[in-house]
Design goal:
Length: about 375
């Protein structure tokens, strides 16, 4: 298995209500296990967990192994998934059986030698294997880099709703149930829930995935009782993802060992699967350049800018596009990109998203001028 493997879920397995709020590690491990079963097209046998694959680290540590093992047992011990399908409900235990070496390890080099395996419940088969309709799929790599379990869940839900081409509305109480935190005191008040869950999730989704969005609050009296999410899928990312999903196992293996993005693009071209932008997308991009003069990353970097990973380059491209849409000058965007490159932990995304929401709502503040000040003075 690799980062480009497909996660494929029936809609019912996305819209289920969590009985316990999962940690980010637990959420990712559940998704990893599903992706591995989808890749093998087999749910009836044991599948081994590769800590190297799961974490995406070349040299995982014993700590990574222990975290994965702890998460696996937590998933087995959690209350069953409650899923309604074909007019009936099913309460499903995810992992009826786990197996692995009883011996402990104390050396990082032994991680690849020790077994940690799972067998998914047979009842999950119609929800992840041979799906023909009512399913959602995405790349495991999209969620593997996310840090918030709530962001992962919200990403899946919004992606599932994307096919309806309309905003997604849900009450605050029902969203808490989806996250499995309806009884957690930490998120009892809306202000706490908004700050710790919604805002962080939207910021991470906007920064790290192919979805761009924001939300609006609906009140009953003074109380916020419903949220409506407005979102779009990034067309360029979606085209590239579609091509990656079309790779055969052999092609995917070659693709994922190539050293850089340029080499990967050359390989895709050689096998006839280089992503092509549709004419409609080209027209939109041309119009944006004419009306907004949206800059590109290539023209904005100083020659001294250090090389960046393909993953971080995606973030830079997205930041450049968003700042261009807001209407910032090329010189300001250049400053922002250089600062973000020097400090990837720079908290620029919340500022960008706040301005975008204000523009959408017709508000005067915050605006591009306040954002420009943040960029130049931070």
């Amino acid at each position: 298995m690799n980062a480009q493997d497909i996660v494929k879920k029936h809609s019912k397995l996305i819209l289920y209500n969590e009985t316990k709020g999962l940690s980010a590690v637990e959420q990712k491990l559940f998704i990893y296990c599903i992706a591995k079963a989808v890749r093998a097209n087999d749910i009836d046998t044991f599948h081994s967990i590769s800590i190297r694959e799961f974490t995406g680290k070349k040299n995982p540590s014993i700590y990574d192994y222990r975290k994965a093992k702890k998460a696996l047992f937590a998933l087995q011990q959690m209350k069953p998934l409650y899923v309604e399908l074909d007019g009936k409900f099913k309460s499903i235990v995810i992992f009826p059986t786990l197996q692995g070496d009883a011996r402990s390890i104390d050396n990082d080099k032994d991680i690849d030698k020790i077994e940690l395996a799972y067998k998914l419940n047979d009842e999950l088969k119609p929800l992840i294997i041979d799906l023909k309709e009512a399913y959602t799929e995405y790349l495991y790599s999209t969620v593997s880099k996310m840090k918030s379990s709530f962001a992962i869940r919200l990403y899946e839900i919004l992606l599932q709703q994307a096919k309806f081409n309309k905003p997604y509305s849900i009450t605050v109480d029902n969203l808490k149930i989806k996250f499995g935190i309806q009884d957690v005191k930490t998120y009892a008040t809306y202000s706490q829930f908004k700050r710790a869950v919604i805002e962080k999730s939207i910021n991470e989704i906007n920064e790290k995935t192919d979805i761009s969005g924001y939300y609006e609050e609906e009140k009953q009296g003074k109380k916020v009782y419903k949220l409506t999410f407005f979102f779009t899928l990034d067309s360029t990312h979606k085209d590239e993802e579609a091509d990656i999903l079309a790779l055969s196992p052999e092609e995917s293996l070659v693709y994922n060992v190539l050293p850089d993005e340029k080499t990967k693009q050359t390989y895709l071209k050689q096998i006839g699967k280089l992503p092509k932008t549709s004419s409609n997308t080209k027209d939109v991009q041309t119009d944006e350049i004419k009306t907004k003069k949206a800059p590109t990353q290539q023209t904005l970097f100083d020659e001294s800018t250090p090389s960046v990973s393909p993953e971080f380059k995606e973030k830079l491209d997205k930041l450049s596009m968003r700042l261009g849409e807001i209407g910032l000058e090329k010189s300001v965007i250049k400053v922002a990109l250089n600062k973000y490159t020097e400090n990837p932990q720079w908290k620029i995304w919340p500022e960008v998203n706040n301005v975008r929401m204000a523009i959408k709502d017709g508000k005067d503040f915050p605006n591009k001028h306040t954002l420009k000040k943040v960029i130049n003075e931070s």
